[in-house]
Amino acid sequence: MPDTKQELDTPNNARFSMWSSVALGAIAVVLALIAADVLLVGGTQSPASAQTRPVTNVVKVSGAAVQSVVYLSVTPGIKPGPDGKLHDAFSVTNFYTHVGQPVKLVINNTDTVDHSITAPAIGVSIVAKPGTHTYALLVHRAGRFEWHCMMPCDPYSMSHVGYMRGYITAS
User: Fold this and answer.
1) pTM
2) DSSP strand pairing (124-128 vs 94-97)
3) Of 38, 40, 143, 152, which is the most exposed, with the fewest CB atoms less than 10 Å away?
4) Residue 144 CA neighbour count, 13 Å, CB half
5) Are strands 115-119 and 124-128 parallel, antiparallel or unpaired?
6) In this structure, what is the dihedral angle of CA atoms 151, 137, 111, 32, given to the nearest 10 degrees?
7) b or e along 60-85 (b: 16 or more beta carbons within 10 Å of the residue's beta carbon)?
8) pLDDT tens digits, residue range 134-171?
9) Are 73 and 108 in contact (CB under 8 A)?
């Protein structure tokens, strides 16, 4: 006579094993997507990719390069913080410009919500819509000014330079 307890446990074990496999597969897909996003965002800032993007009129200002075109991205949950979590971030957070001369910012906002580069002290308010768009950064007085993202997003990123905060230096 077959053991009925063993017959009952076998389908449950198979069902548990199937769901475990599905969960592990889903985790692997998510991790692969995160790795691809990190590589793609990090790759856009590498020296090799800088050669493929046209940058014109590079001028040195106090040791910093002023570019007439700056390519950058905004990505949610991309940059690791000291808390061990991934946070929202702009790929470039420090901008250099000459007073009265615009710098073209080509921003690829990979998020589904708006972000901004806002520096009230110098009247800069750029709203970066999702997708890739071109904006002008124009400063009318010399100095170093802190900017921040005004759109509610990752609280850690909004309060730390290098994530959703940075500096605009105009000479």
Assistant:
1) 0.59
2) unpaired
3) 152
4) 7
5) antiparallel
6) -130
7) eeeeeebbbebbbbbbbbbbeeeeee
8) 998 889 999 999 988 998 888 887 778 888 899 989 98
9) yes
